Amino acid sequence: MKQSLGARTLLVPTPVLMVGTYGPTGTPNLMNAAWGGICCSDPPCVTVSVRTSRLTYDNIVQRKAFTVSVANEATMVEADYVGIASGRDADKFAVAGLTHVAGEYVDAPYAEEFPLVLECRLLHTQELGLHTQFIGEIVDVKADEAILGEDGLPDILKIRPLVYDTAHKGYHAVGQLVGKAFSAGKKLL
């Protein structure tokens, strides 16, 4: 029998996403956001939810753009740091030793060290309560060549992305392929 745990944010796992923005004076900033993911195929869109008290919130509202990068095992310390420090108090890029890169298609930065980057223009904003959901149209995806598979697309095992355990506040790695989507269930048809 299942036990009720109440209304809580216990969707396990969630992605570890790095949201890049510029402040009003052009200062680059990064934020760790676990509340996000792909939300539409056409147009291709990603969503991130940010508290209104965060600098990233103000930056997205003002610049109408952001980047979303995928954190991986190699960048775990840096990814965690940008989630616990405030861009109001520190230059997160400098402290974390990250390389600032200006977006090619949007007015937002990303860190070169993260292997997969989505450049997004703000499409919709939805006030939800404590968080505001920003929906960004993906205008370009950038990937390090080292994470691409033979088909030219990102390979999850080469990326080695972090996932976040909302229940225990821990970072985990992804494992081996256990089945093919849109195929494994066909045996029940």
UniProtKB/TrEMBL annotation:
Alphabetical UniProt keywords: Flavoprotein
Cofactors required: FMN
Record domain Flavin reductase like: where: 10-164
InterPro entries membership: Flavin_Rdtase-like_dom, Flavoredoxin, Split_barrel_FMN-bd
GO molecular function: FMN binding; oxidoreductase activity, acting on the CH-NH group of donors, NAD or NADP as acceptor
Stored Pfam families: Flavin_Reduct (PF01613)
Keyword Disulfide bond appears in the UniProt entry: no
Keyword Chloroplast: no
Signal peptide residues on this chain, from the entry's feature table: none
Family (UniProt): Belongs to the flavoredoxin family.
Protein name from the UniProt record: Flavoredoxin
